[in-house]
Amino acid sequence: MKAERRMKKRIAILGSTGSIGTQALEVIRKHPDNFEVEVLTANNNIELLIRQAEEFKPNTIVIGNESKYNELVNAISSLPIKVYAGNDAISQIVEMDTIDIVLTAMVGYSGLLPTINAIKSGKNIALANKETLVVAGELIQKLAFHHKVSIYPVDSEHSAIFQCLTGEGNNAIEKIFLTASGGPFIGKDIEFLKTATKERALKHPNWDMGAKITIDSASMMNKGLEAIEAKWLFGLNPNQIEVVVHPQSIVHSAVQFVDGSVKAQMGLPDMKLPILYAFGFPERLKTDFPRFSFWDYPELTFQKPDFKNFKNLGLAFEAMDKSGNMPCILNAANEIAVEAFLNDKIGFCEMTDLIEKSMSHLSYIKHPDLDDLIKTDKETREFTKSILNK
Ligand code: MN
């Protein structure tokens, strides 16, 4: 019995009530012999967190919003589950000895410090929080190397590349093809985009995701952030990353090796697949998910990205080229811009203006340490908000 228990990977899910978090729990629910939930954390959604705690009986749960601590304690008082509250508690809980993998599924910059703590305490990371690598990719990679920690990508494109690289040893990558669905506004021009509403931006054709990433997807910022994420995950130069718009979202990305051969990973668009691959690696576990059929997709199409109308993509590549703290500035400005768009304070294209102004205003640091990045993030948010309120 004991030996069997140790075979199970014990998982901490940071952001368990969000889109990736709930899908990760679906994966765990279907593979009770392989995985168990050790820790769940949520920011605000106490109702769902309580239900998850009752079902999965983790060792510990943490709620970010401290004002909900008492309510949470009372709701699960009959269960032997430890309860903590606050963002510091979320950052520290990943140090627990009994965690094997930390799934970082919180939104945006908030994933940075918990991820760093998890790496420092030797935990393997299933990385769903791309902003962490965008903001601090160099630092994270150095830390992961130093602490001998593996980072398993959960982003579907990066999981695809990771799957293509599995078994390739040290074979060199010539380039990668990062596929993009193009989002709900594919083929639209600037006149359309200027008046695009959040209701339409939130309707993604293929993927079911949280609000922030869905807006990023509509503006193509998501693909820019993913290019930066790929640069750090796979040790690439920016000129080795090519974005390919592929509206059917079946080819999840591809790797071209030095001999010219291209390997792609395909499947139906379902985030549970990359989550399962990250949790199960190096094993592939059997699932009953719907299967892809070529006969349902007689046409898979590919086109160049539209840098002219979707300026965020170009800004992200510019930030990637400049490197240093520029991706941190890009990310912070974008988080403020997306929030403002979702709150009907600005139009769709004004998000780009805010990011562009922030990138040219904040001071550039070529080799930022963590404190520089924390400061850059804070100053960028302040600046972006200040021009927003003008
Ligand atoms: Mn993705």
Can you offer a commentary on this structure?
- There is one protein chain.
- The protein is globular and about 60 Å long.
- It has a seven-stranded parallel beta sheet with strand order 4-3-2-1-5-6-7, sandwiched between helices.
- The longest helix is centred in the C-terminal third of the chain and has 19 residues, at 370-388.
- It has helices at residues 2-7, 19-30, 46-56, 69-75, 87-93, 112-120, 130-146, 156-165, 190-194, 198-201, 211-219, 221-234, 272-280, 311-322, 326-342, 350-361, 370-388, and strands at 9-14, 35-42, 60-63, 82-85, 101-104, 124-127, 151-153, 173-180, 241-245, 251-257, 262-266.
- α14 runs parallel beside α16 and α16 (350-361) packs across α17 (370-388).
- The chain has 17 helices and eleven strands.
- The chain starts with a helix and ends with a helix.
- The protein has two domains: 9-153, 3-Layer(aba) Sandwich (Rossmann fold), CATH 3.40.50.720; 158-269 and 293-323, no CATH class.
- With 390 residues, the chain is α/β, with parallel strands linked by helices.
- Helices cover 46% and strands 15% of the residues.
- It binds manganese (II) ion.
